[in-house]
């Protein structure tokens, strides 16, 4: 029981297939704090970039609004003209600011996890409609983590805001004693720096949250030993199925090999256990090569096909074993066996000539052939 329980613990690192399946479902490591911090920082930096032009626009708007003529006050069309002027003055700086924020928001949300699109994420999940599961999410570990993060964020931002207000308190009060347009530029300058520093405080949360999200995502994807075994079976196939496939492949290879036996020049045999079909074609190869080979039942089948097609069968046990163990199908005979194979082929060619034209019967190949020690099996 102890072994079974331990085998169900998720102790194994997720496989590449598991990670890809999770990604297909839209499950990737994400940090909302990273995206939020990126948006805030981009807004602060963008505000600093467009601040001067925004200040000039605000000065122009205020100067226009506070210097109305008597005729303009009683003209009902002036309201539309004023709104049009405000729009023209604020359009460029605000559009620039919005573009910067939108771009950084997009980048900040794909830095961790990349771009993903999953239709499975849109599908309704019945388990989320279960009140019991809802209570588990509300009072679970993840909810506790989110609560802790919320309190931490509030504390960090609140402390940073208090510190900044305390630090710039006298400068803020001094704005009421300054004149236009200097006080506007000074106010925007203070606002920009306070905004940048306040947003920078969220980096502390990001530095903690990003590693946690990566760790938590990896923990959720961890697998049991049984899951790893099952996945291996699914991807690689069950052993009995793989064995059957290999058997079928061998049978197909043997069938193709047997179709080449009638093209052989000679069958070198052991004489019972080994059989090797050898051919020499000067147009195709510079040396004799193997068309087929086999032992026991395959060797018997090779000899049977050779007899049907009247292919010469030569008994040379050491040579048959040497060729079988050192040469693959459609591979040339090793150089060390050239002499022994040449003797066999010469005998076969002379035997064909004797059978076709008569004359002197060729001398059988010597019982002891020149086979190097490295090729003796």
Descriptive report:
- The structure is a single chain.
- With 377 residues, the chain is mostly helical.
- The protein is 64% helix and 6% strand.
- It has 15 helices and 4 strands.
- The protein has helices spanning 2-7, 16-24, 32-65, 70-73, 78-110, 131-138, 141-167, 169-174, 182-200, 202-221, 225-236, 239-258, 297-308, 317-326, 338-357; strands at 266-269, 274-279, 289-295, 312-315.
- It has a 4-stranded mixed β-sheet, sandwiched between helices.
- Helix 3 packs antiparallel against helix 5, helix 3 runs antiparallel to helix 10 and helix 7 (141-167) packs antiparallel against helix 10.
- Keywords: Bacterial flagellum biogenesis, Bacterial flagellum protein export, Cell membrane, Cell projection, Cilium, Flagellum, Membrane, Protein transport, Transmembrane, Transmembrane helix, Transport.
- It holds the Pfam family Bac_export_2.
- Residues 7-27 have a biased composition (Basic and acidic residues).
- InterPro entries: FlhB, T3SS_substrate_exporter, T3SS_substrate_exporter_C.
């Amino acid at each position: 029981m102890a072994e079974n329980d331990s085998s169900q613990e998720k102790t194994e690192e997720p496989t590449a297939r598991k990670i890809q399946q999770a990604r297909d479902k839209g499950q990737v490591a994400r940090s909302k704090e990273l995206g939020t911090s990126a948006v805030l920082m981009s807004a602060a930096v963008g505000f600093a970039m467009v601040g001067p032009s925004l200040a000039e626009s605000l000065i122009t708007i205020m100067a226009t609004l506070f210097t109305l003529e008597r005729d303009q006050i009683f003209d009902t069309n002036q309201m539309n003209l004023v709104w049009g002027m405000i729009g023209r003055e604020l359009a460029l700086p605000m559009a620039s600011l919005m573009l910067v924020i939108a771009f950084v928001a997009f980048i900040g949300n794909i830095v961790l996890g990349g771009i993903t699109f999953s239709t499975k994420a849109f599908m309704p999940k019945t388990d989320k409609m279960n009140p019991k599961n809802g209570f588990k999410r509300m009072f679970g570990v993840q909810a506790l983590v989110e609560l802790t993060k919320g309190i931490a964020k509030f504390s960090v931002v609140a402390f940073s805001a208090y510190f900044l207000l305390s630090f710039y308190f006298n400068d803020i009060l001094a704005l009421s004693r300054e004149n236009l347009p200097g006080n506007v530029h000074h106010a925007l300058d203070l606002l920009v720096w306070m905004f940048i520093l306040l947003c920078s405080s969220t980096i502390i949360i990001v530095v903690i949250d990003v590693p946690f999200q990566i760790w938590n995502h990896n923990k959720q994807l961890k697998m049991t030993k049984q899951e790893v075994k099952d996945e291996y079976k699914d991807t690689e196939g069950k052993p009995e199925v793989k064995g059957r496939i290999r058997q079928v492949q061998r049978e197909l290879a043997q069938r193709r090999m047997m179709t080449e036996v009638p093209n052989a020049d000679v069958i070198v045999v052991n004489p019972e256990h080994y059989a090797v079909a050898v051919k020499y074609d000067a147009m195709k190869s510079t040396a004799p090569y193997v068309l087929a080979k086999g032992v026991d039942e395959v060797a018997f089948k090779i000899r049977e096909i050779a007899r049907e097609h009247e292919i010469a069968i030569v008994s040379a046990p050491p040579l048959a074993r040497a060729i079988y163990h050192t040469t693959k199908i459609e591979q040339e005979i090793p150089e060390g066996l050239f002499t022994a194979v040449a003797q066999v082929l010469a005998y076969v060619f002379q035997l064909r000539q004797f059978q076709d034209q008569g004359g002197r019967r060729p001398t059988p190949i010597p019982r002891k052939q020149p086979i190097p020690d490295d090729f003796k099996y």
